[in-house]
Design a protein that fits this description.
The complex is a heterodimer of chains A (about 425) and B (about 400). Chain A is α/β, with parallel strands linked by helices and about 425 residues long. Chain A folds into two domains: about 130 residues, no CATH class; about 240 residues, Rossmann fold (3-Layer(aba) Sandwich), CATH 3.40.50. Helix content of chain A is about 30%, strand content about 20%. Chain A has twelve helices and 15 strands. In chain A, helix 4 crosses helix 10. Chain B has a domain of about 130 residues: Thiolase/Chalcone synthase (Peroxisomal Thiolase, Chain A, domain 1), CATH 3.40.47. Chain B is about 35% helix and about 20% strand. Chain B is built from 14 helices and eleven strands. Chain B has a nine-stranded mixed beta sheet, sandwiched between helices. In chain B, strands 5-6 form a two-stranded antiparallel ribbon. The longest helix of chain B is centred in the middle third of the chain and has 17 residues. Chain B is globular and about 55 Å long. Classes of the chains: A alpha/beta (about 425), B alpha/beta (about 400).
Chain lengths: ~425, ~400
Amino acid sequence: MSKPLSRPKRKNPLQRTRLPLLPHGQRSRKAHCLTAAAAEGRFMLQVCDDCSHTLYPVRDACPHCLGINLPFRDVRPDGRLVVETTVRISTDPYFRERTPWRVGTVQLDAGPLVIAHLHGDAVEGERVRLSLKLDKSGAAVMIALPAVETPDMQADPILREMTCDPQFRRVLITDGRTAVGQAMAKAFCEAGASIVFVGIANAWKPYPGMDQLAALEQVEIVPLDVTDSQSIADLAAQNGGRIDIVINTAEHVRAGGIIGRGSVIEAREEMDVRYFGLMRMAQSFGPALRFRGADGQSSAAAFVNLLSVHALMNWPSFGAHSATEAACLSAAQCLRAELRPGGVKVLNVFFGPLETEWFQTVPPPKLAPSLLAKAVVQALRQGLEDAFVGDIAQDIRERLAANPKALERELGDA
Amino acid sequence: MTVSTRQPYARQPYDRVVVCAPVTVPYVRFSTESAAWWIGRALHGLLTQSGLRLADLDGFALSSFTAGPDTAIGLTQHLGLCPRWLDHIPLGGASAVVALRRAARAVQAGDASIVACVAADTNHVDSFRKTLASFSRFAQDAVYPYGSGGPNASFALITRNYMKQFGATREDFGKICVAERDNALANPLALMKQKLTLDAYLAARPIADPIHLFDCVMPCAGAEAFLVCREDIARSLGLKVVRILATIERHNAFPDDPVQIRGGWAMDVDDLWSMAGVAPDAIDFIQTYDDYPVISMMQFEDLGFCKKGEGPDFVRGHTLTHDGSFPHNTSGGQLSVGQAGAAGGFLGLVEAVRQLTGETIGAVVPDAQRGLVSGFGMINYDRGLSSCAAILARSA
């Protein structure tokens, strides 16, 4: 059984910080379809359209019928761990400092044989469940989990290496004035974060929910204004090296499209809070996150962006807002590449209209901030890169995959 | 109409073609030289030993992992060859037998008269790691990111599964390794110079359970080579020659075995013995591909010396040294000589030629008339894909 995590000791500031190394992240282009599945927490393998065989490793032609229509489909991840080994000597610098490391051969019920990382509770000869995860290099790998959940299984060191579980990690929430920011603080306290720093701009100005926020045990209110570079730099100087997960909750939601607004004043403000805010946060906190990507059990783990799903396709009712979110999404893709050398994940969480005042006129379904917060915790625990939360986000994602032009037209009519 | 591959033409004997001029370029653990340097040395060795000139070599077969970006064609210009028959054989441990059988048919058919078969690899500091990371697409996508244990980890899974299924013990594998070391002590070219005891074998540090240090080969730089040529030419040069009685080759056999418990030999073993016209008891020594002892044990089974699953008992019932009841890897094998990349695949064949021509450099198998050489190679994903074997005989 996995041992529960213990609270990390205070770090000796004189000790050298272990620098991040990455496992081998090179993959064939087709194999990155597994990366796409892992990014969303799905288990997908190629299934031959012609002969229905499930295939692995990833191929360009079916070894049973030479068919070339080999789409990735959701496949049952169940199988049996046939044989295992413990690698004690590795040629790779990343694994050299993490051995002993268990790997094994899993025979999937669906057919293929899979070499996989082994969770500590996966037992040779017994049933296991495979999961696709993104390793520190950002590429997909298979890990065999016990078929049935075990106590503290999230604490397994191999699994923790591939996920961003907030337990015993220090979290920064950039804006505690909003309903989302406060829900996030509560969710991360419940998830066992060691410290939850919550940024508040102009602290002298009271806000609803202030007392409940301050009453949360792990919460530490810090001065932070994402539109003020100096305020961000000050906080990073003070606490940058102590923050393992950054969650950018800064929001700026206003209805209206492009023509109707009549000026760019509002858009500038949106961009200042959202796009430039993201950039300022990344510039100040990114270097320390990337440096601390291998800093022990509670290493730096993730930078989380909360994004309107309309970053993916403009919703003209909130058209200028959608455009800002699209800019943030593009910046997040860049940030992902820049944080990768540290093994730090960028998690983009997409959602539709929220149950907040700024979406007052929008009909349901709308997403409660508490559900969004729980979904963010869950996505970090799973080690995802892309999460779609709520009915609207799921709907938009599916319609986008099916027919982007139809989605563009229909959102314009809404 | 259906075309059956089950009833091929009858195998033609390897008449009027012989193997000769066994060459080893002494191995070193690390080399600052390139693969081309080692290939050049091997060709030079062939010429020195045979008395031929470079221009006489009208066929060239090359195996090398580290010659990149070059292949055999680039080496013709680099080394001044002008062959009318050329092959590049990227089959690792199966390279020698495959080179032999292709070259032999080319010579028989008149497409070439004298084929230089060369395997050579250099070993720079860190080149082994780089070879592993990009060994194959499946290795890159689906093996190397999993602990990066290389072939040690792949063979750990195969070995553990074999032990569980057939009751082999570490002592059984140890016996193979210890006997090889005893053979190697007489071989001045073996990198391992110290006697290995079973206790030391058992006490060695674990690498990837159940693989321990002395189950693993040492990567090194080196080259091996031989000539396949017209019998009359070899005779006119006064070379000692070896005849080819039979060969087999198979790739990607038994893909449905969950873990490898047999190689392609098991598909072709009857063909091997019927072509040779002899039975296993007529064999005086065997050179297996021994990157790990488990695969040698599988070769004993799959090549017909005992049944599947009887490998452990077979090993317990025999002495495996050059003077024993079942002489095995008489130069010391890769486990004691070193694994010079693709040259590791040539080691057994070159040693077999030495034993059958009497040009031995180390341990001698008394009165050896026939030997079996077996090759195995290319862990593309979870198992070795290539297997091959040849039966060679002393020439009158």
